[in-house]
């Protein structure tokens, strides 16, 4: 075939055959990618749905039974069943509450961190979608474009160009996914405006009493594979301060990807124990947007969802995941905007041993507990 200036390139039948094959492969890959993503990406609901009235039945969940606790613990009162939410009256005395606040003030608090839970799954899903969809398409189309006008183009060169272009576009996709992940992580920080600090020194009376009472509440682990102290499964107590208008948006304490992302801090969060360190007359309530209101005296009146008013020394206990670590989507909760200053202390009980710096040292537990 002559190569006249105004004569368009006409690909050979062989090239057309290869092109059609690659196109069909790319189409099938794209369909497969969207199918996999649809099945595995966690659903993201708009805020209005997350905070909708729970007069409708609770969402179906795969979560099973929670971890065991001492059901006879003094002051323990169930305010919601399935999923269980408890209030524990007079969990800490006034002296312990005041010591926790004092020690937190002395150490100093900083902006409370927010973890991007599930980021590893999101990265895998996004890269999988890109690799078998857009990246494949762009690689093949760019290779096809490069072959236009080249009468010496062969099937092999077309394939090699496609592979080369695929590698380049995949690297670009990985950079874009990383940038998106960073952008989303930074955005999540805006959801939490409180300040906090950890108190892992059990020589301090307030922290020691908090950990000791929590250990009595949870008791030993049901696992027969070790004889660790109950407190070995705790993250060190965190004291959190909410000043006027500060809040924590609806969120979950458990992590669908805990086996990977929280491996260095004890795995899945099985229980959350919060103690209110001061009385709050207005604002600062703890709201469960997917659970109905209770008739308890600490329930916010006129509210359709479970919404607990803080009271000094009382504790709030709930279970973000079941005893096997299965995420419970019903346990979404939030710290409503504070009007009066609010102080709380929190312990997360994990599925495995929590090593320092997140957990308590063996030496400290043996000496003070």
Tell me what you see in this structure:
The chain has 369 residues and is an alpha+beta fold. The chain is built from nine helices and twelve strands. The protein has helices spanning 13-40, 47-50, 94-107, 119-132, 134-147, 155-189, 205-218, 258-261, 362-368; strands spanning 76-80, 85-88, 110-111, 195-198, 238-242, 248-251, 269-276, 286-292, 305-308, 315-318, 333-335, 342-350. The strands form two sheets. Strands 1-2-10-7-12-5-4-3 form an eight-stranded antiparallel sheet, with helices on one face. A four-stranded antiparallel sheet has the order 6-11-8-9, with no helix packed on it. Strand 1 and strand 2 (85-88) form a beta hairpin. Helix 1 (13-40) runs antiparallel to helix 4. The longest helix is centred in the middle third of the chain and has 35 residues, at 155-189. The radius of gyration is 28 Å and the shape is elongated. Residues 1-11, 13-18 and 26-57 have low confidence and may be disordered.
């Amino acid at each position: 075939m002559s190569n006249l200036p105004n004569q368009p390139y006409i690909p050979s039948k062989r090239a057309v055959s290869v092109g059609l094959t690659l196109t069909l492969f790319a189409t099938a890959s794209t369909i497969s990618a969207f199918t996999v993503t649809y099945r595995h990406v966690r659903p993201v609901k708009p805020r209005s749905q997350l905070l909708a009235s729970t007069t409708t039945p609770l969402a179906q969940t795969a979560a099973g039974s929670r971890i065991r606790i001492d059901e006879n613990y003094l002051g323990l009162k169930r305010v919601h069943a399935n999923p269980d939410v408890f209030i524990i009256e007079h969990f800490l005395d006034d002296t312990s509450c005041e010591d926790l606040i004092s020690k937190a003030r002395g150490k100093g608090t900083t902006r409370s961190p927010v973890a991007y839970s599930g980021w590893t799954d999101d990265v895998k899903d996004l890269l999988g979608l890109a690799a078998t969809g857009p990246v494949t398409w762009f690689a093949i189309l760019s290779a096809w474009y490069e072959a236009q006008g080249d009468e010496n183009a062969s099937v092999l060169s077309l394939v090699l160009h496609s592979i080369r272009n695929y590698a380049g576009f995949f690297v670009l996709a990985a950079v874009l996914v990383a940038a998106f992940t960073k952008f989303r992580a930074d955005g999540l920080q805006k959801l939490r405006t409180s300040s906090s600090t950890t108190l892992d020194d059990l020589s301090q009376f307030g922290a020691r009493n908090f950990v000791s009472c929590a250990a009595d509440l949870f008791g030993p682990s049901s696992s027969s594979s070790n004889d660790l102290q109950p407190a070995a499964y705790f993250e060190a107590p965190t004291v959190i301060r909410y000043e006027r208008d500060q809040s924590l948006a609806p969120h979950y304490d458990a992590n669908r990807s805990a086996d990977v992302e929280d491996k260095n801090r004890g795995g899945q969060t099985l229980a959350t124990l919060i103690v209110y360190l001061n009385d709050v007359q207005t604002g600062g309530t703890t709201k469960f947007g997917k659970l109905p209101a209770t008739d308890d005296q600490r329930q916010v009146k006129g509210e359709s969802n479970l919404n607990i008013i803080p009271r000094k020394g009382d504790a709030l206990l709930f279970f973000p995941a079941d005893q096997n670590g299965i995420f419970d989507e019903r346990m979404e909760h939030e710290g409503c905007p504070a009007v009066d200053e609010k102080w709380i202390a929190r312990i997360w009980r994990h599925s495995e041993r929590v090593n320092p710096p997140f957990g308590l040292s063996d030496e400290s537990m043996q000496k003070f507990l």
